[in-house]
Write a sequence for this structure.
DNA sequence: TCATTTTTGATACGGCTTATCAATTTCAAC
DNA sequence: GTTGAAATTGATAAGCCGTATCAAAAATGA
């Protein structure tokens, strides 16, 4: 049984339901993706260049977006490039980002979430999504 | 005494401190900018085309970025284009954004801010900036 | 195997913003 | 008010990141 059997199953389910095909590239990219917490398309392109030098960047983008549709990934626009967040085994969370070294720390805080709902309803809004990112220096970079 | 004398003073101070010059374009753009809460460079370009058809888009971008450095504006990346937020007479705030009509509502919530600090320090971070955006439907768009 | 449909990879394109650079304007010193 | 160094402007090229295009290749299932 492969290391990522469960997620591979999620992907195959999604493919089956949408008349999409299971390809060598999709398998390769999923395997690499699941080893990461956050990764950009470009980073993955360079990583995978060793395993398959002919894998195109467009395929990486297409496939990571496919993972988003399948619920395995989520696109996050932190800096200039899109980070694909591996949410296969995680619920909702927000991020702390170090402006020094780029380190990303995940966190959840129900109190903040609840206050967000309060702010929204006070203004007559119904929240669909939100983004909360805290930018600053990690302990290592502060010194 | 002009309507925007105070902000014009802030701009002139900044110019003086940085060996920059006071130009007709900068005055024109500041006047238009201060009448808005949030505006994109493109929107301002079209608005000002009537007053000065030769005003270039690059000048608008440059000048809005200058206002950011002078502390009069703040760039916010809500959607595809950058919104320049008029903060000349406002403190820090976050935003509710309607995904239906694009309406933007500003809010402040010290409790959220305090919890953010807690999360950060618990993780060894010192916050420099943050972004909090709540996306959803306003009361009008919900019905 | 065969036929149909989807996918892939190379690359052109597009939206938004900044860089480039010659011509113009500002402004402080005469 | 002239002058001249320095900054600014406007037109447009370039850059970045991601998507669209399309012919060739691969996958599916009858
Ligand atoms: Mn994450
Ligand atoms: Mn605002
Ligand atoms: Zn760091
Ligand atoms: Zn609305």
């Amino acid at each position: 049984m492969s290391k990522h059997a469960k997620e591979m199953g999620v992907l195959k389910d999604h493919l089956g339901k949408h008349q999409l095909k299971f390809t060598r590239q999709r398998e390769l990219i999923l395997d690499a993706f699941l080893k990461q917490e956050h990764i950009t398309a470009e980073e993955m392109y360079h990583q995978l260049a060793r395993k398959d030098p002919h894998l195109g960047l467009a395929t990486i983008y297409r496939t990571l977006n496919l993972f988003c549709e399948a619920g395995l990934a989520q696109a996050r626009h932190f800096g200039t490039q899109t980070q694909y967040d591996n949410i296969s085994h995680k619920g909702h969370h927000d991020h702390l980002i170090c402006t020094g070294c780029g380190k990303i720390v995940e966190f959840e805080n129900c109190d903040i979430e609840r206050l967000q709902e309060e702010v929204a309803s006070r203004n007559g809004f119904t929240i669909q999504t939100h983004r909360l990112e805290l930018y600053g220096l990690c302990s290592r970079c502060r010194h």
